[in-house]
Each structure stands twice: as C-alpha cells, then as structure tokens.
C-alpha cells in the first residue's frame, strides 16, 4: 500500500530539520514506507559497519530489530544515541539464547574438561549479553556474510565450536563451507539437562549447535523447493543460510541478504529466481528487476513480524521527538557488557578477507 502522504511529509520535514545530526539505518527486511527514509540500507553486517563509521551523527535511528540497535550502541561513541522506533521490534531467534542458559551450557562443558578447547561463536542475531559472554570467553561474532571466515578463525583457536543461537547457519556453514560432516555436529537443547546430549556426544562433536532458528526462514521446506522447480522449469533457487539444511542443500545458491541482492542484480535478463528470504526484500527486488522473473520461494506469506513493527508512524514519532529535543526509545548496553561484546565484535571486524 502507498505510504500515508501526511506521514511522508512529516518524516521528510523532521529529517530536514535534524540534518546531519540524525542518521537513519534500514535493514533490508523493513517496509517500503520506512526504507524510503533510510540514509543507508544493508544486511546486519553492513549496518553494523555503517553505524561504526558515523561518529558525527548525534542520533542513529535504527530501523531494524533490538539486537541490531544494541550492536550499534556498542560500536558507536558514548556521545551518540541509538534509537529503535518501536521497542517491541525484537527477534525471536535472538530470544532463543538467554545468558543464564548459555552459562549453564558452558558449565557443562567446563565439568567435562572441554570448555578450554571450545571457542564460542555467536551470530549477530543475539543479545548484547550473549555477545559479551562470547567476548569474555575468547570467541567471535559472525553474520551470514562472514560465518565461514569466523568459523575458520575459531577452529584455528580451538578444537570445537559452540555456535549460538542459529543451528541452521551453524550447520550449513560447517557442512557446506568447511566440509565437516553432519555427524560432526550435535544439537544442544537449552531446555534439557546437559542439552539433551551425552558426555561422549559433547566430547566427540566439532560443532555444538544451539537449538535456535529463525521463524521466518525456518518456514521454507524441501517441498517448497521441489514445488517451484516443478512449476518453473529452469528456475534458480537462492536462499538465505538461516534456512533448514535440506532446503539449502536442495538450492542452487545460498548467501546473506547482501549476497542475494548482488546475485539478482548480476543475473541475466529473462532468468527466473525463487528467493528463500523475507518477503519485503523479495517484493522490492521483483519491482526493481522487471526484466527478470523473481518470485517468493513459498506460497505462504513470510514477513518478519517483529521487523515490521517499525512502521512509518513509529519512525515519524521518533524523529519528531528528536526535533522537539526529546530522545525516545534509546537503546543502551551497560558498560561492562558493551566492553566484552565489543571485543567479540572487533574480532569479527578484524577477520581477514
Ligand atoms: P542478514 O542481514 O545478516 O542477512 O541476516 C538476516 C536476518 O535475519 C536479519 O535478522
Ligand atoms: Fe530474527 Fe528471523 Fe526476523 Fe531476522 S528474519 S529478525 S532472524 S526473526
């Protein structure tokens, strides 16, 4: 639906009044009505770097989800304020790893004498608490753009990886990019004692995968892939690595949202693409490339409902409050957590390649 013209005018006016004091970041899964006001769009890796590269912007308005705003707060200066236009914009995957659960898992590994050779790696899609835990224990943050590099680095530091919180990104990267076998991976369930694993399983595993997943990408199934191949002969199937292993294995290409966009931009006219990622992004790509046949991998509608909570009314409210001199919905990470999380984030930003 087209954006409300009154709200568009108010957002435009507020941004003009704030000028270079405000910098608006927009994740690729945001609504069109919000994306039109983003000074930069990107995947979570690009946005983290962009936030870190804007020391002059007093206010960073983050159109994304809570963990992204926390990372921006950690990577920006103390004087800068990070604002999330709707505090209810969380991430169900990030919520699947809670600090107390991860500490309990680490205690189990410590009792078994294997914590010392285990390197914790957390996906960007995790709370600042979890990133702080990882930084304290010699690990690294990764995103879907650099998971292979992060795991290569981790296996240079130790013999085993505890991968948080997305089992699919962990498994897909380990098996399809590092050449580990499915048997090298075990699934740690935080709701079961000892993760539901025996000491032998934990000792033998190379990858201990946390039982977390993305509710959006987790909806694509092998049937979705088979079905689109039947309906559209010659179709290229391109999916995000948060999809299930069997979906990724059956696809032609896999990569982060930035990779998906670049691949579609480079695709020849007339080619057909079924995309296994969030629907706002797929719809924008289809509109931007009318010479290519771009479709959603599944028949069901898959928006990220929490990303979609950031809508134009919330953005207008946050911007107009700034114009009035009030900072609303500021996201702050306490200094100790931020310090350790920053170690793990800086380790990511320093990965070679
Ligand atoms: P990227 O932005 O790293 O591709 O991750 C996708 C996602 O699910 C963000 O929440
Ligand atoms: Fe979280 Fe998935 Fe939404 Fe990304 S798309 S914010 S991982 S629920």
UniProtKB/TrEMBL annotation:
Molecular function GO labels: 4 iron, 4 sulfur cluster binding; metal ion binding; quinolinate synthetase A activity
Pathway: Cofactor biosynthesis; NAD(+) biosynthesis; quinolinate from iminoaspartate: step 1/1
Primary localization class, coarse: cytoplasm
Protein residues bound to [4Fe-4S] cluster: 91, 214, 304
Assigned keywords, A-Z: 4Fe-4S, Cytoplasm, Iron, Iron-sulfur, Metal-binding, Pyridine nucleotide biosynthesis, Transferase
Requisite cofactors: [4Fe-4S] cluster
One GO cellular component term: cytosol
Compartments where found: Cytoplasm
An annotated GO BP: 'de novo' NAD+ biosynthetic process from L-aspartate
A Pfam family this chain is assigned to: NadA
Catalysed reactions listed for this entry: iminosuccinate + dihydroxyacetone phosphate = quinolinate + phosphate + 2 H2O + H(+)
Cofactor note: Binds 1 [4Fe-4S] cluster per subunit.
Positions annotated to bind iminosuccinate: 27, 44, 123-125, 144, 240-242, 257
InterPro entries: NadA, NadA_sf, Quinolinate_synth_A_type3
EC number: 2.5.1.72
PANTHER family noted in UniProt: QUINOLINATE SYNTHASE, CHLOROPLASTIC, QUINOLINATE SYNTHETASE A
Protein family membership: Belongs to the quinolinate synthase family. Type 3 subfamily.
Function field: Catalyzes the condensation of iminoaspartate with dihydroxyacetone phosphate to form quinolinate.
NCBIfam families, A to Z: nadA (TIGR00550), PRK09375.2-2 (NF006881), PRK09375.2-4 (NF006883)
Name used for this protein in its record: Quinolinate synthase
Organism of provenance: Micromonospora orduensis
